[in-house]
Amino acid sequence: MNDDIERILADTGHRWRDRTGPKERPDPGLFAGDRGPHRRHARLLALAAAAAVVAIVAGVIGVNHAWNRSSPASVPPSTIVRNGDTVAASGRVVVSPDGSAKFCSQIPWTTYYYMSPHAVTTNQDPGPDPGCLPPIALRNVDPGKLAKTSSANGVVTGNAHIEGVWQDNTIIVTHQEPEPKSTIEGPQAPSTPCPAPVGGWSPNNDPDQRKALQNYLAAHPDAYSGDWVSVSNAPTSSGTSPSDDTTQVVVVGAVGDLTAARKILTAIYPGNLCVIKAASSASRLEKAREFLRRELQFGAPSISLAPAGQNRLCVYLIVPVIDRSTWRLIEQAGGSNVVSVNPLIQKIGSR
Amino acid sequence: MADRARDSTSSAPRAGAPDSPAAFSDWLAPHMTRMWHLATRMAPSADADDVVQDAVLAAWRSRASFDPADGSAASWLLSVTANAARKTRLRRWPLPTAVPDQAKPAPDTELAIDVERAVRALPRRQRLAVNCFYFADLTVAETAVVMKCSEGTVKSTLSDARRRLRTVLELS
Fold it and tell me: Using one digit for the tens of pLDDT, what is the confidence trace for A161-203?
């Protein structure tokens, strides 16, 4: 019988809840982008602007990461969208009172928390609805087939999965259905590309040492690509894992001699560290990011530095579509050795 | 063990979550306390307010994906909160061993302290189940959503946890 422990747990939980008290409703200004007097909210929104840079449509992850990992040389030409190609997209559709419609590249707001703060920036404040920039014009949309619709001032907004013909930044819709279910789970930290050391990973990591490591890397941008946090399911030296089911391991990409880099970095950061070979230095990545940020202007909802797979850091780019002009810019920035490009509108057929 | 019944869908809209900030805030308000409880239990080393704010923002951004046909607003929001807590736990570097004051058991009884310690020593899934059901006051169904498993698994996990706690606490 477990009645006694049942009662003890229920009582303990009840007393614990009583001590915490009720929580007030969130300030609507948090959602409206009101940064006025609410410093906490302003800070959160600023963090959101800085951190919500790797917001990834779940389907995009599956489709594009695959070729980004397996084809480091270049984007397959078949993915470049040209006039007359058939494309598909899922997201929000906005229909104006005059009947004109646009597709808002709806990006589930998920943050990638595992990066160094200095590596995370974005080319624009995503605001309360970052996915609506930039809109893509639609023709032949049926507002009656939108899912989860709402309307205000004659503007109807709803979700849809659409397929159609790409023509001069416009999708001529030929097929429309309610938006497929999407997950709200964001991308997970990549797995650790190094085996666990003899005796297992350490259960503890020192934040001051991590800061020292990041400062060192920032001072040597030509020698390292940067650092990121990976997770390992390998047991720790204490036989348990510090965060329920994973152990955090800092990964650093080194451009030069790996042995020398490991010796230097281990002295600075004796915690869980995995040093691997990097193809691109932080300087190169930053130049590529700045180039794309400048050239794409508002043509990219998100541009950041993030791991692509478990072995490399890259410029992580989310664009509405990969057209020829976009791809030319990506090639100028270093191609897919440097850039991981993730289109929100997928090409599904050639003209 | 009696499951707790809760009608969490009465305030839910027919499609998606409310689209205006004020309406969304109203819609979310009844669930804030349990979201905060869940965040505190799942990420004890983090600032629960930060976790909940992350969750609230994530819910707002993903409001269009909420579908009452898939489950109650409470389940959805608690799932979002659990995700935020998990991410915060990974974001924090390192995971401090210190527990914030608000999460410490009040020294009202030695038993309460012993229970907290015993719960923390439970295997991960058992600890999560106990924290959700007994401390955050989630139903079995809501706990199943957070744990991403079936209600039957939640019940068996809770049963295993109680058996282990009973031994640890040396209850006859």
Answer: 899 999 988 999 999 988 654 433 334 467 889 988 888 887 6
Helices (H), chain A: 3-20, 29-32, 39-51, 58-70, 207-219, 258-268, 282-296, 324-333
Q: For B26, which of A6, A20, A25 is closest by C-beta distance? A: A25
Tokens (6 digits) for B163: 């058996």
In whole angstroms, give the CA distance from residue A40 to residue A75: 42
Which chain B residues have a beta carbon less than 8 Å from that of A12? 105, 111-112, 115-116, 134-135
Residue B111 in tokens:
């038993």
Name residue A21's amino acid.
G
pTM of the shown model: 0.51
Q: What ipTM goes with this model? A: 0.78
Cis peptide bond N-terminal to A72, omega within 30: no
How far is A202 from chain B, CA to nearest CA, in Å?
A: 11
Condensed to tens digits (0 to 9), the pLDDT of residues A19-72 reads: 776 676 676 666 654 333 233 333 333 333 323 322 222 222 222 222 222 233
Contact between A291 and A174 under an 8 Å Cβ cutoff? The reply is no
Q: Which residue, B126, B120, B34, B26, is CA-closest to B76?
A: B34
CB pairs under 8 A between A and B: 166
Question: Does the beta-carbon distance from A184 to B105 stay under 8 Å?
Answer: no
